[in-house]
């Protein structure tokens, strides 16, 4: 029970918000959906004010009509609980249920995501609306899946959050002594004498305690997960046949540990919005897809949202040229998504996202965009059978949400862009044609030949043991600078950093040497390092390359390798440029059938090829036109 009920092909559709439109548009919607091959739509994500116009008073008539029309049209429904946007009556009645920013300002309604998952009134109202939907629709023939909430991520620093945080801390540490020790409370007189003295990490005068901040992010992930589970359980109880999910999203603002969450959803679902204005958007899409598949344990997952056309980035809206929507969709499908879903079906006339692209643009069906939507949608049934086998990867990149969170701290040995460091390794591998998985530092690594740890700054004792076990058993471990700098409490690993694994790597790191911005430090025959280097003392490892220049580091080891048990551990003591990673992967013989601008993914007897370049591409016997894609038999 992990798949939208009643659907056995690939899903195609998106967020459908009929409540924004008069009823006469709804019949047209169903007709157009059928024309486009849409088979699943997500309904009701932001409908709370329409479903419960006053506390305890429900209006389901419109939703009954919508679900009836969709069902009659053969379109299945992914029915959402609307808790990501509480109605104005709720927030006015319960101002304490609005989220509080780190600076103490309580937000007001007028946008969305204004809720505090730890506020009792919000929890109760969430249960009530979810239960009312379950009671009415759990047996509805159109219902294929439940979509709880939307993109969990809003953090609150309220008093409710603070109280819940203390309860969470008490469960974790049991005694204040343990908490004070874990948080290094003697520094700056932060020793707590009573649980009630512990606050949420709101804005402080100067630097905050990194262990406190990291625990608050862990707590927030767990608190949001509790909110999800509460709804999931009552939806499941109403009909155990219907899978339940929520759409995960990506961002520094999202304190969600996807490894933990993936275990609680029936189907991992992800919203992919690449932010790059150029061809890096393809890279970001592949990165999102490989992460999602990995959170799903290598199995099926679903691209729940993407933009049909123009994508909003910081620099404005970037158009998707002809064929790009299909290619992005195929990046996801080839990498394990069981379909392609979008935000949203019909472009809104008003509201904050009125200029967001949609499957049906403002100009209607007679548009280039809608023709592409129809063409692609009608192609999918023909390739569904090629997606049965899993994606094959024997390289994994460690994905450590805690390292991402912890490296957001203001005071580090050097500024660290964890996301970019992980993405860089993925990017260079992808350009070499290698499809990589991601793995949790504490997860099962046994199926991989090579595991790469990008700046895995937080390395718990359990993760360190996991890496030791992996390498001893024959694995090849590659770790980059600052890996294992601190433990799970953000306390430094003494005597050489590296998560205490100095014997495994055969080196000790003795000093951090940030380099001036913009200056590159050449490595012998190995490209160059950027921004950050470490002074490394050999303790049994061999030096693969040395720094060619730089105070203190000239002639010192930059990249090392150490045999350990049946395997070997490589250490990269600096931030490498793409060219140097490429050189290292050459050394490690990591190559695959794809290449720059060309995604090639093998699954069982099938090979997926997506050609993002402006030239025709030939892969084996298959010729793929410029800007196009193909699925063909894989050469054996
Ligand atoms: C998110 C949300 C959608 C919409 C899109 C816009 O993914 O879930 O409601 O706001 O972003 O890109």
TrEMBL record:
Residues 393-588 form the Beta-galactosidase trimerisation domain. Keywords: Glycosidase, Hydrolase. GO terms for molecular function: beta-galactosidase activity. It is an enzyme of class 3 (hydrolase). Transmembrane segments: none annotated. The active site is at residues 151, 305. Pfam families: Glyco_hydro_42, Glyco_hydro_42M. Gene3D superfamilies: 3.40.50.880, Glycosidases. InterPro entries: Beta_galactosidase_Trimer, Class_I_gatase-like, GH, Glyco_hydro_42, Glyco_hydro_42_N. It comes from the Bacteria. One of its GO terms (cellular component) is beta-galactosidase complex. Residues 15-380 form the Glycoside hydrolase family 42 N-terminal domain. SUPFAM superfamilies: (Trans)glycosidases, Class I glutamine amidotransferase-like. GO terms for biological process: carbohydrate metabolic process. Its EC number is 3.2.1.23. Belongs to the glycosyl hydrolase 42 family. PANTHER family: BETA-GALACTOSIDASE GANA. This is Beta-galactosidase. It comes from Glycomyces sambucus.
């Amino acid at each position: 029970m992990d798949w939208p009920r009643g659907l056995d092909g690939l899903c195609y559709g998106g967020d459908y918000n009929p409540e924004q439109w008069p009823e006469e548009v709804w019949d047209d919607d169903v007709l157009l959906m059928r024309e486009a091959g849409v088979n699943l739509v997500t309904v009701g994500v932001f409908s709370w004010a329409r479903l419960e116009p006053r506390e305890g008073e429900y209006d389901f008539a419109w939703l009954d009509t919508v679900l009836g029309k969709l069902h009659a049209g053969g379109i299945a429904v992914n029915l959402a609980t609307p808790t990501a946007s509480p109605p104005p009556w709720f927030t006015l009645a319960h101002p304490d249920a609005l989220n509080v920013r780190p600076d103490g300002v309580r937000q007001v309604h007028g946008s969305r995501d204004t809720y505090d998952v730890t506020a009792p009134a919000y929890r109760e109202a969430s249960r009530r609306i979810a239960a009312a939907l379950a009671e009415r629709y759990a047996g509805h023939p159109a219902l294929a899946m439940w979509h709880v909430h939307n993109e969990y991520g809003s953090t609150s620093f309220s008093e409710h959050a603070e109280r819940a945080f203390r309860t969470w801390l008490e469960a974790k540490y049991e005694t204040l002594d343990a908490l004070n020790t874990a948080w290094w409370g003697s520094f700056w007189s932060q020793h707590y004498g009573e649980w009630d003295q512990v606050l949420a990490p709101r804005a402080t005068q100067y630097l905050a305690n990194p262990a406190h901040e990291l625990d608050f992010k862990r707590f927030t992930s767990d608190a949001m997960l509790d909110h999800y589970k509460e709804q999931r359980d009552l939806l499941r109880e109403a009909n155990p046949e219907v899978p339940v999910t929520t759409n995960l999203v990506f961002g520094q603002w999202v304190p969600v540990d996807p490894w933990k969450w993936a275990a609680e959803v029936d189907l991992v679902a992800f919203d992919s919005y690449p932010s790059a204005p150029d061809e890096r958007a393809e890279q970001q899409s592949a990165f999102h897809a490989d992460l999602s598949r990995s959170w799903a344990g290598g199995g099926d997952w679903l691209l729940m949202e993407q933009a049909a056309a123009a994508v909003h980035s910081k620099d404005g809206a970037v158009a998707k040229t002809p064929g790009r929507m299909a290619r992005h969709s195929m990046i996801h499908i080839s990498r394990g998504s069981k379909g392609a879903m979008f935000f949203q079906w019909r472009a809104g006339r008003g509201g904050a996202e009125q200029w967001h692209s949609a499957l049906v643009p403002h100009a209607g069906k007679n548009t280039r965009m809608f023709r592409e939507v129809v063409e692609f949608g009608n192609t999918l049934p023909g390739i569904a059978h090629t997606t049965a086998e899993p994606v094959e990867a024997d390289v994994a990149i460690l994905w450590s949400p805690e390292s991402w969170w912890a490296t957001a701290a203001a005071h580090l040995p050097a500024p660290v862009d964890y996301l970019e460091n992980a993405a860089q390794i993925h990017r260079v591998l992808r350009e070499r044609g290698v499809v990589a998985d991601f793995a949790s530092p504490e997860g099962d690594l046994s199926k991989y030949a090579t595991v790469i740890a990008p700046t895995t700054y937080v390395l718990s004792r359990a993760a360190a043991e996991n890496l030791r076990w992996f390498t001893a058993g024959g694995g090849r471990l590659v770790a980059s600078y600052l890996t294992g700098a601190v433990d799970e409490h953000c306390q430094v690993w003494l005597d050489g950093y590296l998560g205490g694994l100095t014997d495994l790597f055969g080196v000790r790191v003795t000093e951090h040497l940030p380099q001036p911005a913009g200056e590159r430090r050449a490595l012998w025959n190995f490209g160059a390092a950027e921004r950050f280097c470490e002074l490394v003392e050999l303790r049994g490892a061999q030096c693969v390359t040395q720094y060619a220049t730089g105070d203190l580091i000239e002639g010192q080891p930059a990249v090392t390798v150490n045999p350990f048990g049946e395997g070997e551990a490589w250490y990269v003591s600096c931030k490498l440029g793409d060219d140097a990673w490429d050189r290292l992967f050459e050394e490690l013989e990591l190559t695959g059938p794809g290449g720059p601008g060309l995604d090639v993914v093998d699954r069982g007897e099938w090979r997926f090829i997506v050609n993002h370049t402006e030239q025709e591409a030939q892969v084996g016997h298959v010729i793929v036109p410029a800007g196009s894609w193909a699925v063909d038999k894989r050469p054996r």
